Amino acid sequence: MDGAGALTIQVLGDLANIDRATWDGLANPAGAPFDPFLSWVFLQALEQSGCVSAAKGWQPAHLIARASNGQAVGAMPLYAKDHSYGEYVFDHGWADALQRAGGRYYPKLLCAAPFTPVSGRRILARDAEVEAALAQAAIGLARRAGASSVHATFTSAEACARLAPLGYMTRVGLQYHWFNPGYASFDDFLAQLSSQKRKNIRRERSRAREGLLVKRLRGGDIKARDWDFFFRCYMDTGSRKWGSPYLNREFFAQLGERMGERCVLFVAEAEGRQIASALNLVGGEALYGRYWGRLAEAPLLHFELCYYQAIELAIELGLPRVEAGAQGEHKLARGYVPAPTYSAHWIAHSGLRDAVARYLDAETPAMVEEAEVLSEHAPFRKMPDL
Fold first, then answer.
1. Which of 30, 219, 322, 365 has the smallest count of CB within 10 Å of its CB?
2. For a pLDDT cut of 70, what percent of the chain falls above it?
3. Predicted TM-score (pTM) of this structure
């Protein structure tokens, strides 16, 4: 498609058009922390199950960069979209503004792990030159396809800085992560909290588990019936939150079969009957909480399955942090602290581009200030001034 020096960049389309080893060599190179959401298995399962498809408004348009000898040296998980659902970096207001001005926002191009508000590498390049070539190729593809924009969501601040000279604007968001400085146990973590917060968490855990048995299932311990139950929970929560859940049972079947060792289910039982479940994925440097649901009322169980069980497992595995998904100031009282997220946005329409730039000039310092204010309310003990 595009050439950059000795590089050739092509549109792959579906992930089935590249072999697993080639993609994974770029997405999860040797020596780098494993990112399950960039792996060929995860992304291809989304496509094969039909969760990601043209019919769903997610047309795969992945890019591959090859050196003159044919070796793959970079890739970009890219989708042509005709809506903004399942992204968690909200640009509906941008779309409405362009439509009111007589323009068309969709289709747009999105570089992301679909339905996954988890930060990580987005342009999978071995050096900055290849990264820039892929980012520029995405712009070229957008121009030729009549797409309004290119977006790389949940990338790094460093990547955004490298993309800025190409016309990509940086947007800052906010999540809540739990960080592990090397705790040996959950009690070690509690010892760092203020007395009242420590008591509150112990009280919450006691109430949440009253009359319940909480099980941790991983890999081969997760049977088909457990996935069936989890999917019922997912559908119940998704139907209430989104109206139409994004993922289907086939996707979770493939996830369990192909990435079972990375999957952990926390399951709550009452008198031998499963009543709630939460899915986590184990990465190289984080535990990622993804979905949860319950089919019976149980006070505070959400906090136990989604936050406290995850903290315990991260400590056992020696993982540096837990990422428990988007939003949720209620996480703050449970030891999860504000953490910035970053996305990069290129917009073709000059009027919208200028308006978005002004908007980001105001939004960014507001997000930074919000994080600082929230951090003051973290539950950790305040150290005396020296």
1. 30
2. 97
3. 0.94
